[in-house]
Design brief:
This protein is of the alpha+beta class. It contains 8 helices and 20 strands. Strands 6-7-8-3-9-10 form a 6-stranded mixed beta sheet, with helices on both faces. A 5-stranded antiparallel beta sheet has the order 13-12-11-14-20. A 5-stranded antiparallel beta sheet has the order 15-19-16-17-18, with no helix packed on it.
Length: 382
């Protein structure tokens, strides 16, 4: 096992396209780090540079104490698990798993022992004599992982390994990989566009956009304290509600606009000390769907009344969609309107709600859980 560190790593492709911009990131020994972001954010390119499949244009990549910029992929002592299983169809599971060791001229007895041990860890001992075509998608992915495990590398690199699986298998394999990491404690760099994978599996998450890292922290910390508007809108399902707002002071109390409603913020000392600088100014207000609940708050100035536009019953919970008569602060509104700027918000309600589309409903706003961002820089107001 080893620490992986990137110091101001940049990748510029032929033609001048910048895929990665001065990324500095450290994955400590034994850590499970997930890179997450939309398509084109640079996350897979970072992984491929660590693997040696892409050459860094600038910056330094270390695995352990060794600078590996000029080290061949086969000599970096890492193992990759790809989106495609890349199993040899004519080989048995046993031979597929042992192949990386045989080409390294590992003794036959040692190969047999390590394959058997990896198969036991992965729960595929009974599959060793089958061919890949005889396996399910989840079983093939375990074999692909087993082929990496037998090498006993310093680090695992995983590039969207679950994207070819159906929803049920993805959930099962997510839990399986997390448990496997707890057992092996091998440094792991994992790439996905699926924020659920990132939040449930990672020790730390690095959110990427346009080739750079927007925020790297524990999953819950990113969820509760997003560094900027992009992270706030990207992490969370349904996404955080983001609207343009204004901060006003009345009789020593601060108020934030949410459409046609005014919300009284908690009395001083403020949860957001920096918000005082924005009195009389515009801000971006964020509230997560679970920050809105059915019914009126004890403080009438912490409630809003809305019309249900769409109700999605999901069993244990219900997602309510409504218009806030506010201007959306999201770069890409979920639902387009004629002007493309109206704010369509969501609330996460209990599964037993009886609200129907078209009805008026009162929602209590948890003002302690509001988020505020600078409208120009997008940075969180702390």
């Amino acid at each position: 096992m080893a620490t992986i560190s990137l110091d101001r790593v940049t990748k510029v492709f032929d033609g001048g396209a910048v895929a990665v911009r001065e990324v500095s990131l450290t994955i400590i020994d034994g850590e499970f780090m997930v890179l997450v972001g939309p398509s084109g954010s640079g996350k897979s390119t970072v992984l491929r540079m660590v693997a040696g499949l892409e050459e860094a244009t600038d910056g330094t990549i270390r695995i352990g104490e060794r600078v590996v910029n000029d080290v061949a992929p086969r000599d970096r002592d890492i193992a990759m698990v790809f989106q495609s299983y890349a199993l040899y169809p004519h080989m048995s599971v046993r031979d597929n798993m042992g192949f990386p060791l045989r080409i390294r001229r590992v003794r036959r007895r040692a190969v047999k022992e390590r394959v058997a041990q990896a198969a036991q860890i992965l729960g595929i001992t009974e599959l060793l004599d089958r061919r890949p075509r005889q396996l399910s998608g989840g079983q093939r992915q375990r074999v692909a992982m087993g082929r990496s495990i037998v090498r006993e590398p310093q680090a695992f690199l995983m590039d969207e390994p679950l994207s070819n699986l159906d929803a049920k298998l993805r959930v099962e394999m997510r839990a399986y990989i997390a448990k496997l990491h707890q057992r092996l404690e091998t440094t792991t760099l994992y790439v996905t566009h699926d924020q659920t994978e990132a939040m449930t599996m990672a020790d730390r998450v690095a959110v990427m956009r346009d080739g750079g890292v927007e925020q790297a922290d524990r999953p819950q910390a990113i969820y509760e304290r997003p560094a900027n508007v992009f992270v706030a809108g990207f992490i969370g399902s349904p996404a955080m509600n983001l609207v343009h707002s204004r901060i006003d002071a009345v009789n020593g109390a601060l108020y934030a606009a949410l459409g046609e409603h005014r919300l009284r913020l908690p009395d001083r000392p403020l949860r957001w000390p920096g918000l005082g600088r924005y009195v009389g100014k515009d801000v971006v207000l964020g509230v997560r769907p679970e920050g809105l609940s059915e019914g009126r708050a004890s403080d009438p100035e912490a409630s809003i009344e809305v019309e249900a536009a769409l109700v999605e019953p999901l069993g244990a919970e219900t997602i309510l969609h409504f218009d806030a008569k506010a201007t959306s602060a999201r770069a890409e509104p979920i639902l387009e309107t004629e002007d493309g700027h109206a704010a369509h918000l969501t609330a996460r309600l209990g599964g037993q709600t009886t609200i129907e589309a078209g009805e008026r409903i009162a929602l209590a706003v948890d003002v302690e859980r509001l988020h505020f961002f600078d409208p120009e820089t997008g940075a969180a107001i702390a």
